[in-house]
Write a structure and sequence with these properties.
The chain is of the alpha+beta class. The chain is about 45% helix and about 25% strand.
């Protein structure tokens, strides 16, 4: 069990509010809130104080592996606060409906779009309604939150409350003494997209086939498009709650109105700066509330209970009006969209007819050309088919025929290869030949001297164009060491040797098909083995020993 859970259980068991516990520990109310929501952890000194206060051991409170229950706690009456704070009702809604967003969601009717071009008229109408609603509530002052919507922070100094008006109604009202703290955050920088005109053309075997006009998105970086003001407060029962106010600065509908992302970006920048400045003004106002709240707690200032019923009634009226408006917007947009869709389909039909004629003409031409190419591909592939048909009973004499088939098939395109219907016959014959050839080579090389290549044969000087390798005996002939010499730089390079104590002083495995022996040398730097190096040795037709090492071919001198 986390310490955050334990603190909440013990606090409630002893009858403390978060405010009471904060007073006992001589810290802020918000610190208790952060502990219980697991946003921060108390220091050791405060853990000791709480262990003493709640009559539990320090270890039991600190150790997450130890659970604690309400029944385990023992009340210590001498520590229970005799002063119990009382809180007033708080009015809080979750309505996030925006008139402008509703217009976007429902297709944005042309008539409303034209009306919104004169934003001053809309703004003045909203401001007038806001002032009347707040005056009816008794608010003496307010701070606007956005310069295009009637949203604001307000205070009723007589009733000692503050709140927020947004989207045509009061959304939140909190008494001063219920306020705990607040913070401001934003959504970060966001991208919007402009459209950049593009011209395109298509070319084929017959020349220009098509031409078109379109556009590509172009990203534009904006300032924060949304801000959030988070208010922590006590409800009537003294439990901690949070109200989150979201403020959208990015006027998405500005792009729809003006089809100009640069204008929308400029508006967002202005609105973002304005909103940020006003939020900081509000934050300063909120910081002054605790001093007044203390006077309310002490009885120095008397206040009336918040009329939640009146606020709820007005809020419901606004929601009803909004829903009616959204419905009308939806119906209007639906009618206009159907008309627009009908016109668009007529235009699309005409364009589609013209394109169909062009494509039909082009398709006939392309079909003829494609048929000619297909016939040619089939003829090319048929030559390989005939070669495969010549395969009879597989013998060692079929080596030339099989090699010719492999070369000819490799020259075909992927499309031509699909026409070689008997390719599986070749693969079977190839496998049969490999079996015969391996058996022949095993018999042929039974007495081949290369089967007896030893460490002694590896000893000596090996030479190539750029490098010389010197190999000598080491450890009484059971291994060898080597060193490389760079002819271009005139310097010695890495050295190394085969593994010690090789059985019978032999080197690697013999391959009868390639008539080679292979093994591994290792190289070292500063006395430390660094890597294994693969090598092969064989005797060529001239009787010379030939070694391949790290991609170079060396001949023994």
């Amino acid at each position: 069990m986390k310490i955050s859970e334990k603190i909440a259980i013990l606090r409630k068991r002893f009858g403390y509010s978060q405010e009471d516990l904060a007073n006992e520990l001589d810290i802020s109310r918000q610190s208790i809130y952060k502990w219980e929501t697991d946003n921060s952890t108390p220091d050791l000194d405060n853990i000791k104080k709480m262990a003493n206060l709640f009559n539990v051991s320090f270890d039991k409170l600190l150790d997450d592996n130890i659970d604690i229950t309400v029944e385990e706690t023992v009340l210590k009456k001498e520590y229970i606060s005799t002063k119990k704070k009382e809180y007033r009702n708080v009015f809080a809604t979750n309505n996030k409906l925006s008139y402008n967003q509703a217009e976007i969601d429902h297709g944005y009717p042309e008539s409303r779009k034209r009306k919104n071009l004169d934003s001053e008229i809309i703004y003045n109408d909203n401001i007038s309604k806001m002032k009347k609603d707040l005056s009816d509530y008794g608010a003496e002052s307010f701070i606007p939150l956005q310069n295009d919507l009637a949203g604001c922070f307000f205070q009723n100094t007589k009733n000692k409350t503050f709140g927020f008006y947004f989207n045509g109604s009061i959304q939140f009202v909190c008494p001063y003494e219920n306020y705990i703290g607040s913070n401001i955050s934003n959504s970060g920088n966001e991208m919007t997209y402009d459209r950049q005109l593009m011209l395109g053309a298509g070319f084929g075997r017959g020349g220009l086939n098509s031409i078109g006009v379109g556009s590509m998105p172009r990203p534009v970086l904006n300032k924060p498009s949304s801000y959030y003001l988070n208010i922590q407060y006590f409800d009537k029962e003294g439990e901690t709650k949070e109200y989150r106010l979201s403020l959208n600065c990015m006027r998405t509908y500005a792009i729809l109105e003006y089809n100009n992302v640069n204008e929308a970006k400029a508006f967002n920048d202005i609105t973002s700066d304005f909103t940020n400045r006003k939020l900081n003004d509000i934050y300063s106002k909120l910081n002054s509330l605790p001093a007044i709240a203390e006077k309310i707690y002490s009885g120095e200032i008397s206040v009336d209970e918040l009329d939640v019923n009146m606020l709820t009634s007005k809020y419901k009226q606004t929601v009803k009006k909004q829903n009616k408006y959204v419905k009308s917007i939806s119906e209007q947009a639906d009618t206009e969209n159907k008309q627009r869709e009908k016109r668009n389909w007529i235009i699309v039909g005409v364009i589609a007819g013209i394109i169909a004629i062009i494509l039909a003409i082009s398709g006939i031409s392309n079909a003829i050309e494609q048929h000619k190419l297909d016939v040619k591909d089939q003829q090319t592939a048929h030559a390989v088919v005939l070669m495969i048909d010549d395969i009879g009973e597989v013998t060692l004499e079929d080596k030339t025929l099989l090699n010719n088939i492999e070369v000819s098939y490799g020259k075909l395109t992927d499309k031509q290869k699909k026409y070689v219907s008997n390719y599986s016959v070749y693969l079977t014959a190839k496998n049969q030949y490999n079996v015969l050839y391996k058996a022949y080579m095993e018999e042929y090389t039974a007495d081949d001297p290369t089967r007896n290549i030893t460490l002694a044969d590896l000893k000596g000087t090996w030479d190539t164009l750029n490098y010389t390798i010197y190999i000598a005996d080491f450890a009484n002939g059971s291994s060898v060491w080597y060193r490389t010499y760079n002819k271009q730089t005139g310097s010695y390079g890495i050295g190394g040797g085969v593994a010690l104590n090789l059985p019978s002083s032999t080197i690697g495995e013999y391959d009868c098909l390639t008539q080679t022996k292979s093994g591994k040398l290792y190289s070292w730097n500063n006395g430390i083995m660094s890597e294994w190096v693969d090598y092969t040795i064989k005797i060529n037709s001239n009787g010379d020993y030939v070694m391949t090492l790290k991609g170079w071919t060396f001949t023994k001198l």
